[in-house]
Amino acid sequence: MSEKQYYQHHVFFCLNHREEGRPCCADKGAQTAQEHAKKRIKQLDLSGQGKVRINKAGCLDRCEEGPVLVVYPEGTWYTYIDNEDINEIIDVHLVGGKIVERLKI
């Protein structure tokens, strides 16, 4: 018997900041994007156990491709530019169950 997952989707936004000048997600609006995603998930009543969890993460080691987020349990990696991209990931992937190919990395 398989155990039910605590969250249907768990989304981690890299918020890493690098001091030495290398590319980092923090310099590309990651904090604002994470806050937007969290707010939108709550507005859609998708937040909580058995639904969606939006989390902050430290370095996910893909900053050169960033900003990045990863959706589990699928392990799908995305990059994004603005809130419209975040909304598309929410609408198409988290709600609709399909990969957003144009944002996938």
Describe this structure in words.
This protein has helices spanning 30-43, 83-95; strands at 9-14, 52-57, 68-72, 76-79. With 105 residues, the chain is of the alpha+beta class. It has a single domain (9-100), classed as 3-Layer(aba) Sandwich (Glutaredoxin), CATH 3.40.30.10. Strand 1, helix 1 and strand 2 form a beta-alpha-beta unit. Helix 1 crosses helix 2. The relative contact order is 0.23. This is (2Fe-2S) ferredoxin domain-containing protein. It comes from Noviherbaspirillum saxi.
Helix content: 25-40%
> What is the element string, with H for helices and E for strands?
EHEEEH
| Structural Rg | 14 Å
CATH fold group: Glutaredoxin
**How many DSSP E strands?**
4
**Shape estimate:** globular
CATH architecture classification = 3-Layer(aba) Sandwich
- The N- to C-terminal Cα distance equals 33 Å
The percent range for strand residues is: 15-25%
Biggest sheet overview: 4 strands, mixed
Number of DSSP helical runs = 2
Indicate the CATH class.
Alpha Beta
Mean pLDDT across all amino acids: 94
In terms of quaternary structure, what is this? single chain
Structural class by secondary-structure content: alpha+beta
Q: Indicate the low-confidence ranges by residue numbers.
A: none
Number of domains: 1
The CATH superfamily is known as: Glutaredoxin
